[in-house]
């Protein structure tokens, strides 16, 4: 023990103990060093216990990213999850496009695409959405109701700029295939803006099924050319690894896998309700 203390004093270049033939006592520097060392050991023990329990108890900051429209859609789910896991701080980042996999230190990235993302991350399917044609009753009163996709050539078709799809509207199925090319009467890259323009009667809008549920319910929009479905999109949650998965990430993913398909099913019931079809 004396040798170890002597080596430590040599390393620190200070005396930690005062030694006499009768007694041994700590120097002032030794007392300060001992107190700081005890604090460090305590913090190390706490950090070890916390890390060991990270896979058991959801706590800490959970960073996740998704597109703007989907983020607004799942906000009720975020609130419900946070109520069940109050020690988790939810940090949501929104953008108009999918980010790179786990960009900027995100724990989970929710992506929308055409099939499984090309990524080294683990991908969990959360469901799918597609787009439907809608118009306001006022627009249809002025311009008539299209009975067939070909009839859209005589209508004002509003265009959403979507990097996942071509500009064309491609219809397939009975009684045949048809491709409509919307003109540049109005175009936007934000689904919320397209929804508003359609509600205002600017023209026929192609809207993801997550958008028009409330306007369909309150009569501000009608669904056209049902049951045609365009632009199918798959939704995935990406995360880095299955090993030693943090409890907050695991419970959030389990919650999304359970609740998001139920939310999509609610929207499906509305857009497939014949009362809203024209």
Fold and architecture overview:
This protein is an alpha/beta fold and 278 residues long. It folds into three domains: 2-53, no CATH class; 60-127 and 233-267, Periplasmic binding protein-like II (D-Maltodextrin-Binding Protein, domain 2); 130-232 and 269-276, D-Maltodextrin-Binding Protein, domain 2, CATH 3.40.190. It contains eight helices and 13 strands. The strands form four sheets. Strands 3, 4, 5, 6, 11, 12 and 13 form a seven-stranded mixed beta sheet that branches. The longest helix has 26 residues, at 28-53. The chain is rod-shaped, with a radius of gyration of 30 Å.
Backbone shape: rod-shaped
The total domain count is 3
In total, the number of strands is 13
Compressed to H and E, one letter per element, the order equals HEEHEHHEEEHEEEEHEHEEH
Per CATH, the architecture of the largest domain is: 3-Layer(aba) Sandwich
Ends apart, CA distance between termini: 90 Å
Number of helices: 8
**Uncertain segments:** none
CATH topology of the largest domain: D-Maltodextrin-Binding Protein, domain 2
Oligomer: single chain
User: What's the overall average pLDDT, rounded?
Assistant: 85
**CATH level 1 class label of the largest domain:** Alpha Beta
Give the helix/strand class. Answer: alpha/beta
Biggest sheet character: 7 strands, mixed
Give the helix level as a range of percent.
Answer: 25-40%
- What percentage of the residues does DSSP assign to strands (E)? 15-25%
Question: Rounded to an integer, what's the Rg over CA atoms?
Answer: 30 Å
């Amino acid at each position: 023990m004396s040798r170890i203390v002597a080596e430590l004093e040599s390393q620190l270049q200070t005396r930690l103990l005062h030694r006499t033939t009768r007694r041994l006592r700590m120097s002032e520097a030794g007392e300060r060093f001992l107190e700081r060392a005890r604090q460090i050991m305590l913090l190390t023990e706490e950090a070890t216990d916390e890390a060991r329990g990270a896979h058991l108890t959801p706590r800490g900051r959970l960073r996740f990213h998704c597109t703007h429209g989907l983020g607004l859609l799942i906000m009720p789910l975020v609130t419900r999850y946070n109520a069940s896991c109050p020690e988790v701080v939810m940090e949501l980042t929104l953008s108009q496009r999918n980010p790179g996999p786990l960009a900027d230190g995100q724990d989970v990235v929710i992506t929308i695409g055409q099939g499984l993302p090309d990524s080294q991350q683990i991908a969990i399917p959360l469901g799918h959405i597609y787009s439907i044609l809608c118009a306001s009753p006022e627009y249809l009163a002025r311009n008539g109701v299209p009975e067939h996709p070909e009839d859209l050539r005589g209508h004002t078709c509003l265009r959403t700029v979507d990097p996942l799809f071509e500009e064309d509207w491609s219809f397939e199925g009975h009684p045949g295939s048809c491709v409509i090319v919307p003109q540049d009467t109005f175009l936007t890259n934000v689904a919320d803006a397209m929804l508003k323009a359609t509600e205002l009667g600017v023209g026929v809008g192609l809207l993801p099924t997550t958008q028009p549920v409330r306007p369909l319910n309150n009569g501000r929009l009608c669904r056209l050319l049902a049951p045609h479905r365009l632009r199918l999109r798959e939704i995935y949650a990406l995360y880095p690894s299955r090993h030693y998965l943090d409890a907050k990430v695991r419970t959030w993913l389990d919650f999304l896998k359970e609740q998001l398909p139920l939310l999509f099913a609610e929207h499906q019931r509305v857009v497939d309700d014949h009362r809203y079809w024209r």
